[in-house]
Amino acid sequence: MNTSSTNAIYASNIGATTADLRALGANRTLVLIDGRRVVAATTQGGSMVPANVVDLNQVPTSLVGRAEVVTGGASAAYGSDAVAGVVNIILDKQLRGFRGSMQYGVTELGDNKEYAISLAYGAAVNERGSFIIGGDFSDAKGAGDCYSRDWCLPGRAAVSNPNRNNGLPATILLPMGSIATATKNGIITAGPLAGQEFAPDGLSTYAHNYGVYYGAGLFQSGGGDMRHPFYENIPLAAPTRRITLLGALDYELTDSIKLIAEFSYANVKASTIGAQTRDTGSIIIQRDNPFLPSSVVTAMTTAGVSSFNFGRIGQDLGPATSKVERATTRIVGGLEGTLPNGWKWNAYYQYGRTDYSQRQQNTRINDNFTRAVDAVRAPNGSVVCRINADANPANDDPACSPLNLFGQYRFSPAAKAYTYGLATQDTTISQHVAAATLSGNLAELWAGPLSFAVGGEYRNDRAFGTADPISTALRFYTSPGAPIDGEIDVKEGFVELGLPLARGLTLLHSLDVNGAVRVTDYSTSGSVTTWKVGATWEPARQLRLRVTRSRDIRAPNVFELYGPRQTSFQTISDPTRGNASVLPLSILGGNADLKPEVADTFTAGVVFQPDFLGLDRLRVSVDYYDIDLQGAISTLGSQLIVNLCAAGRAELCAQVTRDANGVITSVSNTNLNLNRVQTRGVDIELAYNMPLFDGRISTRLLATHVMNLKTTDQTGTVIDRAGQMGPPTAPSTGGLPKWSGTAQLTYEQGPFSISGQMRYISRGVRDVLLVGPDDPRYSTTRPDSVNLNRVRPYAYLNLNAQYAILDDGARKIELFGAVSNVLNTDPPNYLPLFSPTNPVLYDMLGRSYRIGARFAF
Predict the structure, then answer these.
(1) What is the pTM (predicted TM-score) of this model?
(2) What is the mean pLDDT of residues 687-698?
(3) CA dist 540 to 443, 543, 617, 618, 718, Å?
(4) Would you tell me how many other CB atoms lie within 10 Å of the CB of residue 666?
(5) Are residues 815 and 682 in the same domain?
(6) Which residues form the TonB-dependent receptor plug domain (predicted)?
(7) Is 840 within a domain?
(8) Contact, 836 vs 152, CB < 8 A?
(9) Eight-state DSSP code of residue 235
(10) For the residues of 265-292, what is the DSSP string, one character each?
């Protein structure tokens, strides 16, 4: 699941909470409310959250009755897109009276303060209907950046070792990481003056302290600025303010027809601090630049060079800051009823709309920056941009103001205003859905009724918007890119059957089979058919076995098809230059030639609930799943594109752009139908309760074993990310621990209860593409060798307690408190990307507290 703590790195989609079953991507998990479709809330972006998925915050918590989760393929029964499964949020329409909660939370260090309130009311309407209304308000203040925590400063960086004659591996994870090819004062990165760093006042230079550095790649250990710029500024949790409202009415128009009406509105405002500019030797400085100290000009003249490559961290120019607002409105109207023969029918129409606004301030305008950096002295002695002093008036830009990058805070306000600007994007996502179903029993057979259901659905999904001209032209350092304008029409029809085969026989307490077929027609890619066949067998009342085989599909959504090009950055290693790490531009975008994904899914499970030997309070379930997804829509990833190019794939080399020195400057990483994604695993659930000391104690264990999580690219290369603990670089390239789970122990006595929960993450490796010393394949001569790749197992302890100060049946007031990460366990700090750890798996905030009250009357 993605939250404000896992997607604060990027501006796009901050504040969204999304479901991601089986780590196949949130866009492969279908989210419904009372079995009905929900308009998407996320847009295109470079974040870990894919576009066109539902924000779970659209339903007030006080109105949630329960959530049904169906894992594995469910497209035939629930609708297209349910490749990984379905999350169906069921509203509590039986609510009568008021209920709600208020709470306050804060971390041990005093940040990430959160105030939240949830209220709901339900009532009968003329004895023929019911009405519920509820709302949530929460205001989370967010947390500081990585350096607000003690575990961050010694966080390790991946230092490249291209030579390896020193007996060390190709990549060495070393503490106190910083960048070697860029500093906050500025550094010369190539040529005879390489390694000269400018003083803070910009008037002199000194030898840069490289700490531990092997002459290639981005990172060093120790020395330098002593802080890793990738870890600065970006909050561990994004400030988020959320308001959610929902009202629903069920009213019996007649004894056999019921009216259904529903309205919801959710508004999310979030902000984040992004990256400062990081130029790792890509800036070219000419010898006649008047801002250069005379000592540097003299040294250049002596060395016979007219220019040098320059690296700089633009912390003084400030990081980008982003504000996002997402407003989602949903209206549902429908009828449902019964026929004289007991058959049931329902029909509904839904309109949903999400209005998304993103404002990214202080974003560098790349071409303006290049012009402003290239300064010269005019004949009158003033310092001007070179384009305004050359003999070609056609390239003049009167607004250009020369930018002094030597030292810190040496630039003029006019130069800052010229080189930095505001990136804007406004996107609207709309969805129309009309659906109808009919269900009943076709015949009474020897073991029960033959059930039947048939239905159809029409859906229109559209995304359109606007963006500023600079974003549209991809002129910003990073930006949400050009606006989108795309539309998809979908028509679906399905049939379901349920056939009972046996009842009440020896070893056949019950035996049922079921099946479903759904035909879906997409305006963009044509018709596809999904199906499901399943069986449930109870040899005895205490034991139930189930099995399902299905074919599932997901067609590309509007953003995957029509998403315009946008820019981001990603650290990669260049195998053609000794695995030196670089930070090139990553260009993302849609692909109108995408085809639907097709998944073959097999699930099998057993449920055991004994009623003998004193085990009547025990419940055990074990479920096996196997999902084989063909033509998965994803990106190869910048690193894999570069690797395959180096291995001889000439067609992919066209996606890699290098400068005159052979350094990668950009990689085009657009959506493709990749060959295959496979995942297999087992889910285990165990529950038991018993009386103890005039109270009751209960235990519950939930565990998942991921056997494999394989991706196969177009070359046939297989990567199994089961057991990979390093952070994901895209929504679909993350790994999962081989074992994970939670164990909960609860004791209740009268008005008091207390629970302890242990969350477990098994050991694994930082990156499955690397080989560490504990691997029998390890050799320092390997280009994929690393000194540290093993990640130890982790366990987090959480405690919560509640006490009912009033509970007379009709009225209830309960106080509660909770402590998360009781032992204040620090995360592993050697999984570097945009922080030293993986925010999806590990807790970055440390010990946190929450207190509050629940009430009902």
Answers:
(1) 0.89
(2) 93
(3) 26, 6, 17, 16, 43
(4) 17
(5) yes
(6) 7-86
(7) yes
(8) yes
(9) B
(10) EEEEEEEEE-PPPEEEEEEEEETT-TTS
Question: What's the structural domain count of the chain?
Answer: 2
Neighbour tally for 423: CB within 10 Å: 26
What type of residue is 85?
G
Q: What is the pLDDT of residues 513-539, one digit of tens each?
A: 999 999 999 999 899 999 999 999 999
CA distance linking residue 700 with residue 684, whole number of Å = 10
Same domain, 221 and 243: no
Mean per-residue pLDDT of the chain:
91
Average pLDDT over residues 278-295: 94
Instruction: Compute the distance between CA of residue 357 and CA of residue 130 in angstroms, rounded to an integer.
Output: 36
Is the confidence at residue 730, as pLDDT, over 60? Answer: no
Q: Does 122 lie in the same domain as 171?
A: no
CB 480 within 8 A of CB 462: no
Cα–Cα dist 68/350, whole Å: 21
Beta bridge pairs of residue 439: 344, 453
pLDDT of 442 higher than 80? yes
The CA-atom distances, in angstroms, between 314 and each of 397, 405, 410, 794 are 24, 9, 12, 36
CATH code, 30: 2.40.170.20
**Whether residues 544 and 589 fall in one domain:** yes
**DSSP letter string over 217-232?**
SSEEESSTTSS-GGGS
Phi, psi of 560, deg, nearest 5: -65, -35
Tell me how far apart the alpha carbons of residues 771 and 786 are, in angstroms, rounded to a whole number.
6
* Phi, psi of 266, rounded to the nearest 5 degrees: -135, 130
Which residue range is the domain that position 336 belongs to? 21-146+236-274+322-361+424-856
Q: Compute the Cα dihedral for 290, 295, 301, 306 and give only its sign.
A: negative
Nearest of 458, 450, 452, 454 to residue 437 by alpha carbon:
454
CA dihedral 73, 78, 82, 85 (to 10 degrees): -60
What pLDDT digit, counting tens, does each position of 566-599 carry?
Answer: 777 777 878 887 777 677 777 777 888 889 999 9
